[in-house]
Automatic annotation (TrEMBL):
Pathway info: Porphyrin-containing compound metabolism; protoporphyrin-IX biosynthesis; coproporphyrinogen-III from 5-aminolevulinate: step 2/4
Cofactor(s) annotated in UniProt: dipyrromethane
Keywords, in A-Z order: Porphyrin biosynthesis, Transferase
EC identifiers of the protein: 2.5.1.61
Name listed for the protein in its UniProt record: Hydroxymethylbilane synthase
Organism phylogeny: Bacteria, Pseudomonadati, Myxococcota, Myxococcia, Myxococcales
Catalytic activity: 4 porphobilinogen + H2O = hydroxymethylbilane + 4 NH4(+)
Gene Ontology CC entries for this record: cytoplasm
TM annotation in the entry: none
GO annotation terms (biological process): protoporphyrinogen IX biosynthetic process
Amino acid sequence: MKRFIAGTRGSALALWQTRHVAALLAARGVESGERIITTQGDIDQSARLVGKLEKGFFTQELEAALHAKEIDWAVHSLKDLPTRMPAGLVLGAVLERAPAADLVLVRPGSVDDTQVIPVKSGGRVGSSSLRRESLLRHFGPSLSAQPLRGNVPTRVQKLADGQYDAIVLAEAGVTRLALDLSAFAVFRLNPVRWQCAPGQGAVAVQCRADDDATRDVLSRIDHAHTGRATGLERDFLRILEGGCTTPFGCFVDGSRASLGIASEAGWRSLRIDIPVSPDGAWLQARLDELNAAPLEVGNDWLTRRV
């Protein structure tokens, strides 16, 4: 059997994900190597990602290498992939999902357990997306939401250095890298009420649509349940056509979905049952309901200390 080549970004998390894919395949008798490819998202450290994810900010160079047949597959965080796949490329596998929730890491001197978001009034809270900023403004109006860029270890180090009182980031990345968080108070945000980014916590493996050999290999590690759940989350986002410019969150768990969207009045949420075969009309109707849904309210089960 041929030795396959995987394309990956060079961050610690991207390499972990790529090597996890390699380990899963090796256990099934498939040998693979890796090629590190720098993307625009690795170079551009501007404060905000507004409008960039749907343009392939973290993926375009990897996809170009796929088209050029320089690599056999590319490994991505699914939430970074645009919802509209470039012509000739497909998802060959979606791995079993890690925890989808966001975490709040708080410096010990900045904890205030009386608040919905347990950070002292006026605290500087770093986040890397409009969704998280919108949720912070809604649930923690006394807090100061600040942009936060860099890879996961860099973000945690910025908190340790005192640049922020707290930061919000995905639990999956912290867990995968086994980062030491003992210096902070750690709170998990309930994804049913603090909705995650569509696809958050899942690893996607992208390949060429006409590469039957690679698709056959990748099908061996595809996790169907995760693929269905995250696929529906991304279907909502694709119909919304908000990408990174419209703050939107979605979490599918079994036969239930929780949707959230920013509005001028605050963060609106909707929890719904999922039919057996949801179609585009059903998805659009639920998004219409979401835009008229009540504002989400805070209570003592938005966060749980970890």
